Prior knowledge:
Elements: E1 5-15, E2 18-28, E3 34-35, E4 45-50, H1 56-63, E5 74-76, E6 82-84, E7 91-92, E8 110-115, H2 125-142, E9 149-151, H3 152-155, H4 169-174, H5 191-198, H6 205-216, H7 226-238
Parallel strand pairs: 2-6, 4-8, 4-9, 5-8
Antiparallel strand pairs: 1-2, 3-7, 5-6
Helix pairs in contact: 5-7
Amino acid sequence: xxxxxxVTGILRRSAGPRETESRVNALTHPSPNHxxxxxxxxxxxxxxxxxxxxxxxxxxxxxxxxKAEVSAHYLIRKDGQLCHLVDESRRAWHAGAGAWxxxxxxxxxxxxIELANTxxxxxxxxxxxxxxxxxxxxxxxxxxxxxxxxxxxDMAPGRKTDPGPRFDWRxxxxxxxxxxxxxxxxxxxxxxxxxxRFGYPDAPPDMLLAAFRLRFRPWATGPATAADRAQAxxxxxxxxxxxxxATS
Length: 248
């Protein structure tokens, strides 16, 4: 079982244009795997993961094992129980190699949230509700924009697939906790250029397409289509990554 000291906190959950408060019971379970954010960086990204492990307890043990050298700021169990592992001011070790826009040290610029899931299962309602509460709170506290809430697969195309095709990104976007493309954009844009403008790192076109589809069109197969290009164009137009202010 997860052990630790129960801490009651108040997190805000977005409800469209209004906000409601929900009380969340968090377990503090400190991980030793963290360090200082490099160069005085502040978090302006949130990276979502699945644990890819059979149980939350196994994931918690690994995230707190000094030999594993991995961690996250939060772990959310399937029943919605929130575990706080690393203080938000510290650099957790969750992202690894990858980039978003010009940010190459993603760990120093992000908050990492792990969801207990093997990657082959739906994400239960209590878990999603708890995630929404944590996201709204962290985004408000650090002024993180919805377009800078990303998946591990977004920043590491070809290397990572989490939070995977079963994760409901559109649900988060409806609450202003992430973004989703609007219909009606032209379908003749430069797919790779638009994905790069949105924030995806430099990677082979097939890897970029796979990472993009994993999040926005997980049912799609085959070569890039007009629908892929239309969605990428809309995201790039409305949410261009701020490369000018990004630091590695």
